[in-house]
Amino acid sequence: MDNKGRFFDHLVIGSGAAGLSTALRLAEKGTVAVVTKREIDNTNTNYAQGGVACVIDNKDSYNEHLKDTLYAGANMCDEAVARKIIMAGPSCINELISMGTHFTTKGEMGESKNKKDYHLGMEGGHKKRRILHSGDITGNEIQKTLIDACKKNSNIQIFENHAAIDLITSWRLGWMGDNFCLGAYVLDIKSEEVKTFLTLTTTLATGGAGKVYLFTSNPDVACGGGIAMGYRANAQIANMEFFQFHPTILYSPARKNFLISEAVRGEGGILKIKNNKGNLVEFMHKYHEMQSLAPRDIVARAIDNELKRTGQECVFIDIRGKGEAFFKLRFPGIYKECLSAGIDINKDPIPVVPAAHYCCGGVKTDINGYTGLNGLYAVGETACNGFHGANRLASNSLLEALVVPSFLAQDVEEKLGSIRENRPTGHVPDWKTGSATNSDELVVIHHNWDEIRRFMWDYVGICRTNKRLERAKSRIRNIRKEIEKYYWDFFITLDLIELRDMSTAAEIIIDSALQRKESRGLHFNADYPKTEKELELVNTIISRSHAI
Ligand code: SIN
């Protein structure tokens, strides 16, 4: 190609656990560029508290983990995919440990003298203790290990403050033949230059899209970028109606998005609500036999229902009386954060509300992360490979993020010969950016951003109806038209890129929710309250030809 672009064998977009694991695997055989919108550790992974679900206890088994995964997934998981991921867990975890990740041991918790005995956490939907954790900052511990390894690897080049705008595909360029992904246009936020990355494979690993909702546990980066880029490149997007709401986010004016890990309930925390005398009483027995540890979709809906029924602003987790020493060891982050909000969890019940947490849908892939578009892969929360079905089992996501890249690297190795041979060649033009600036541009962007997040929360949240979804659809349609107009006319910025991606992701969620004419797992529509047997395992697919 006669280009002044940057050439690498592989491009990875995103720097969470899935992205960096992919980079490390691919770097064994070629050069890799990792582009990430902000700093390398500004990712969903970094905030993950719970841990990694993995069968390492000899009283546990792959079949039991599989059974819990399939039950939580409400008959929408791909069983073969789930089995393969679960079975590959222990060897990936051992690799991670050998790279330096530390998981909390029973010794540290004062439960055993055997240093190698890991302390296993319990979370909603699991019938066994099987969550490896580093206190309650597991994601941060894993992220640090992966960053260190990537920085030491001479085949990996990391581009921070680089925001991918769009994938470059042969169809986008108007070339004939099969569609190939050739790389991506990427905005260097500091120099304001749009760079052309040309590669043999591109992997979308941008995490989820929690920021489309007003209340979310996700950091600001989670705008659905990978899903939106995949969609614009004609990849299929699957099951986006299954958006997981975490039941317990700290309800505090001080900090809106701090997660109170499900592991707190795993260690004995009980969900309670105030009765009309102002006393705290349990309520989960009315909803599920597993009570406070029922699968997440059930708990989030139960809380939503209780809050609407009573008009209260929050429910509570009661884990009082375990002792300061226990909390400092097991939940150091939560203990500290709550204290700074004026809540001593050893003495006070923790006020909590549900918030958007995890996108179970995404760019449709096979077990290897392959999207079906030549050269394009997706991993982690960006992807939908069938593992999570209609409701992800707690702490299965870090497992997936660590395991699937190993399958991906093998698939790339098998396909690379054919990609090299068949990939079309020609001139790839530079990104054409508008040069106009407008003083009210930022106001418009922020207004649209706020509006999307508000109506997504009100109309496309935990409980949906046809009318609410239709309202959301008509609003997003207008906003999307406005954004496209601005997008092409104005100088490109990170704000604009994120708004455009977020609006695309929001529209795909709405379209997917409108398509599913039943309630299942995380998708509840009061106009179709029943689960329909014939819709079991039927994926909702949105592709470019479908939406506006
Ligand atoms: C949590 O710690 O509750 C979150 C874990 C997860 O989302 O898997």
Biggest beta sheet attributes? 5 strands, parallel
Helix content: 25-40%
| Mean pLDDT figure | 94
Q: Examine the coordinates and then state which fold CATH places here, giving the name of the CATH topology of the domain at 247-357.
A: Flavocytochrome C3, Chain A, domain 1
> Pairing-aware structural class of the strands and helices?
alpha/beta
Strand residue percentage:
15-25%
Ligands present: succinic acid
Corresponding CATH architecture of the domain at 247-357: Alpha-Beta Complex
The number of E-state strands comes to: 21
Oligomer: single chain
Principal-axes geometry comes out as globular
Radius of gyration, in Å, reads 23 Å
Annotation field: number of helices: 13
Taking the alpha carbons of the first and last residues, their distance comes to 33 Å
- The CATH homologous superfamily name of the domain at 247-357 equals Succinate dehydrogenase/fumarate reductase flavoprotein, catalytic domain
Report low-confidence residues grouped into runs of 5 or more: none
Reading off the top of the CATH hierarchy, the class of the domain at 247-357 is best stated as Alpha Beta
Strand order of the largest sheet: 7-3-2-11-19
Structure description:
By secondary structure, the chain is an alpha/beta fold. Among the domains are: 247-357, Flavocytochrome C3, Chain A, domain 1; 441-542, Up-down Bundle (Methane Monooxygenase Hydroxylase, Chain G, domain 1), CATH 1.20.58.100. It has 13 helices and 21 strands. The protein has helices spanning 17-26, 62-72, 79-99, 138-152, 225-232, 262-266, 296-310, 324-330, 332-340, 396-422, 441-459, 466-489, 494-515, and strands at 6-7, 10-13, 32-35, 52-53, 120-121, 131-132, 156-159, 162-169, 181-188, 193-198, 201-204, 237-238, 243-250, 270-274, 280-282, 315-318, 350-359, 362-364, 376-378, 383-384, 541-542. The strands form 5 sheets. It has a 5-stranded parallel beta sheet. Strands 13-17-16-14-15 form a 5-stranded antiparallel beta sheet. A hairpin with a 4-residue loop joins strand 9 (181-188) and strand 10. Helix 1 crosses helix 10 (396-422). The longest helix is centred in the C-terminal third of the chain and has 27 residues, at 396-422. The mean pLDDT is 94. Succinic acid is lined by residues 49-50, 259, 261-263, 358, 394-395, 397.
